[in-house]
């Protein structure tokens, strides 16, 4: 992976923490917070608001072409034009007082309707963040602590280069990193990873293939080539000889790179996925915050769960398997272990599956979770 998309919804776990759990299993959430505070990670607008390696921050900083059309950049510019004096005063306060959170700016007036109902100071902080004057120094209870960009990077173990990269170099870097992160990619999948514009074409990838940075491959059933990073040559050989095996079963965040490009998820896994938290309750098919289930390299279904931390309960409102998925003992065991592992990570050791499809799956999962 090259980035962790940030989202604040905390029904099971906030997305960046969940994405790491899906790959690593149980870990201390403070590890991610510490990595940001210690200057090994940075926050930037990438795919969307994201954690990125501090070593790659300068590419995001210098991606002017991509940022120019992004909604956050446009909104920040409008906000600055409308509230220039207030934003300048806020910036000077941080310059003189040091790092501040939005909550440190007291206000009795009601919040505005736009920008998620944020108060003006929060909008101004976010605008300066998008414009590059402020950065996130650390997070406290997931709230951003803002400081001047130059002071944040000065504290990093390795501050970013001062020189400005040209657009062509940044775009090439992001293309190569996207292919590396995706494992195998069609040209049309690449741009979404870092939200590159315009879209990437096979013709644009040809020089990278010629230089040996990427490898072009043929995939059964595809009418266009796939691309693999040269560093993945050994894995590619295993895949070609049918000796590469996926063994893990886990739950994914709706903002996991495996599924955040819905078209790619449909294309690669034949998995149609919609996050329904923004859908009226009566129209939802799979619940407020359904998590895709990855089982041994396939997306086999989804889980609607909620971590009831005060009660120590991991409540599974529903489990739905895809219609073409065959229910086997190995699948039941894999899903049950994934649920129990996620529950233990949250400190909610009791797992209760309240519903599932196909018929009989809930009883099998409850039995497996009880051990």
From TrEMBL:
InterPro entries to which the protein is assigned, alphabetical: AlkZ-like (IPR009351)
Pfam name, any one: AlkZ-like
Domain of life: Bacteria
Record-linked PANTHER family: CYTOPLASMIC PROTEIN
Protein known as: Winged helix-turn-helix domain-containing protein
Record organism: Luteibacter pinisoli
């Amino acid at each position: 992976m090259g980035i962790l998309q940030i989202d604040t919804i905390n029904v099971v776990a906030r997305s960046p923490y969940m994405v790491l759990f899906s790959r690593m299993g149980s870990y201390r959430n403070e590890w991610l917070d510490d990595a940001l505070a210690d200057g090994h990670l940075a926050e930037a607008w990438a795919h969307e608001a994201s954690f990125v390696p501090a070593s790659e921050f300068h590419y995001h900083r210098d991606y002017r072409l991509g940022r120019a059309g992004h909604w956050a950049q446009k909104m920040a510019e409008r906000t600055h034009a409308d509230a220039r004096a207030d934003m300048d005063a806020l910036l000077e306060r941080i310059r003189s007082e040091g790092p501040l959170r939005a909550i440190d700016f007291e206000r009795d007036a009601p919040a505005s309707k736009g920008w998620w109902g944020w108060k003006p100071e929060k909008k101004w902080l976010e605008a300066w963040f998008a414009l590059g004057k402020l950065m996130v120094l650390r997070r406290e209870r997931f709230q951003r602590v803002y400081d001047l960009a130059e002071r944040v990077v000065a504290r990093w173990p390795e501050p970013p280069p001062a020189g400005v990269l040209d657009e062509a170099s940044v775009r090439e870097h992001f293309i190569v990193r996207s292919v590396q992160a995706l494992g195998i990619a069609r040209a049309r999948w690449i741009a979404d990873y870092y939200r590159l514009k315009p879209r990437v074409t096979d013709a644009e990838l040809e020089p990278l293939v010629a230089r040996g940075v990427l490898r072009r491959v043929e995939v059964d059933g595809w009418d266009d080539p796939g691309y693999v990073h040269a560093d993945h040559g050994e894995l590619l050989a295993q895949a070609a000889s049918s000796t590469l095996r996926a063994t893990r079963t886990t739950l994914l965040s709706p903002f996991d790179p495996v599924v955040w490009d819905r078209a790619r998820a449909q294309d690669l896994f034949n998995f149609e996925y919609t996050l329904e938290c923004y859908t009226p309750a009566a129209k939802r098919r799979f619940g407020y915050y359904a998590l895709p289930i990855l089982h041994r390299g396939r997306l086999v279904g989804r889980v609607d769960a909620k971590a009831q931390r005060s009660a120590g309960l991991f409540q599974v409102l529903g489990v739905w398997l895809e219609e073409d998925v065959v229910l086997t003992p190995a699948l039941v065991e894999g899903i049950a272990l994934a649920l129990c592992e996620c529950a233990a990570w949250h400190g909610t050791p009791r797992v209760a599956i309240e519903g599932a499809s196909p018929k009989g799956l809930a009883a099998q999962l409850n039995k497996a979770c009880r051990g």
